[in-house]
């Protein structure tokens, strides 16, 4: 019997070189990744300038013969090389060099050097110029300088990009009709390949300003394609979600919703009624609602959420509300208990409370209520999405301050139905989203906006004062307390150290306690137990505590109408939306309210431009939408959205401040492509998003 043929051993994968590893670390794995890795700037090596024609201070390329080369030890070790180009000489000076440099720059060698030309008593010099042996033709395009790392030399990266551009499939994904409409919208390069060639290797006579500010036709083409990929992914995610099924929750006349409206101690504003109707319409459909409810601080989002919960409960289903902090969750819990529990008791239903700090016995009791369905509404923190929480019939998920939760957490809450049906999802945010962001990063969402504050809210006067006037601020606090008012004093978080945060807040608490004898001054910070925080907040809410010194744990959700003064220490360290949220803790009653932004300029200096812009915006406007617009201008979309909390990949090329015309085109084009050119849409997504094409699931 013949022996079986030996099976060849599988070839082990080839080990990656250091530059290849560095490329992978930068995300440069596919040819298209390299093709889209664009230069930071360019160097002009297409011409050589004679030294006699060069201007001092300009960056030039010269060519000449090395007439002198030596290592000197004057103060520090340096290599000095004299280059003669026939019209003059120039000294090349290097403080960091290797033996290979000395070998290349030996006397007699013909060299091309490029750098900034400096004059002086001893003649022209160049400090650490780029250099190479002369010879061969000059390049016919500008030399690209790419974003890179220490392990990835420019020469290696340039060669990799040239190879990738030669191999990459850049067949047109834009159908002719959409390409024609794009060319009517903006001046764009005819093809993506041509755009990339122009951006990687621009001709020497190119308008560098247009390349640098993104207005060049090649940039316009690239931005339009990127925005189209983003809009396609958002529209596709929305269509996929619209194909899912959710429980239909009809609004029952004379049901729980109407009873709650009648029981409320105040009338809804026109804006609250409008968004309530939008939400009720969504809940009545079998398609999962995916809606963002946005409104300024104090605009009354909680009552709109309560009315939505009433519709779900009335239809025989459960509702969950998740908030990012225990203070905020408890604030919601108390409001909802007050509004809903009297209406739920006759139905044998309850409101449950879930947080990470609960005692084991209380937690077990709440889990049993949720599993049995007796808990019609569940309010809590991240604890709501833990594995042991099992809902009997979850139909509506409410997420407050949605930007504080990541995609995975929102998905976990959606996964709590456990059946074929999806829950309806209502996300709330007191950080209004500027129009361009809503059109791009939230294009898959329906957005409801409460653009009106309830009557009785007093305008807040905002003042910016130096820390040098601290004594005046303390005197003003005394005045407010004498009038029967209460005061917040917020200390900043110091990112480097939680211990520093604590000592800062503790020192301020001691200082104010001493300066305000007879006044109860409280302290609230993140290291306190939930029970301690609750006790402090309770004293403040009941009016027994005159001043509350706190870190930013009071940013959202705290509602004390008698508090009329907010002092924010080191206001220059806070973000704009955070300052606006903190300011919104006052002005909730009838008394005139103020917010004092106290800043400390750096030693012997002045505040940075960004900090000044933020403080100026706070003084000039109380409008959360205007604040959000300015915040976007100052920070850009990446920081505004946080660490990709939206689940959307951030734009690399397009700029929402300047490219709105391209965004408008991309929105329309995405719908057309999905309806009429689905294959090209798929190819376009694969090219631009690769494995991230499935990103938008929450």
TrEMBL record:
GO biological process: DNA recombination; DNA repair
Pfam families associated with the record: DEAD, Helicase_C, RecG_dom3_C, RecG_wedge
Catalysed conversion reaction: ATP + H2O = ADP + phosphate + H(+); Couples ATP hydrolysis with the unwinding of duplex DNA by translocating in the 3'-5' direction
GO function terms (MF aspect): 3'-5' DNA helicase activity; ATP binding; ATP hydrolysis activity; DNA binding
Coiled-coil positions: none
PROSITE patterns, per the entry: HELICASE_ATP_BIND_1, HELICASE_CTER
Domain called Helicase C-terminal: residue spans: 473-633
Organism lineage string: Bacteria, Pseudomonadati, Pseudomonadota, Betaproteobacteria, Burkholderiales
Keywords attached to this entry: ATP-binding, DNA damage, DNA recombination, DNA repair, DNA-binding, Helicase, Hydrolase, Isomerase, Nucleotide-binding
Keyword flag Nucleotide-binding: yes
Bilayer-crossing regions: none
Ranges for domain Helicase ATP-binding: 282-450
EC number: 5.6.2.4
NCBIfam families: PRK10917.1-1, PRK10917.1-4, PRK10917.2-2, recG
Gene: recG
Keyword check for DNA repair: yes
PANTHER family: ATP-DEPENDENT DNA HELICASE HOMOLOG RECG, CHLOROPLASTIC (PTHR47964)
Biological function: Plays a critical role in recombination and DNA repair. Helps process Holliday junction intermediates to mature products by catalyzing branch migration. Has replication fork regression activity, unwinds stalled or blocked replication forks to make a HJ that can be resolved. Has a DNA unwinding activity characteristic of a DNA helicase with 3'-5' polarity.
Family, similarity comment: Belongs to the helicase family. RecG subfamily.
Protein name as annotated: ATP-dependent DNA helicase RecG
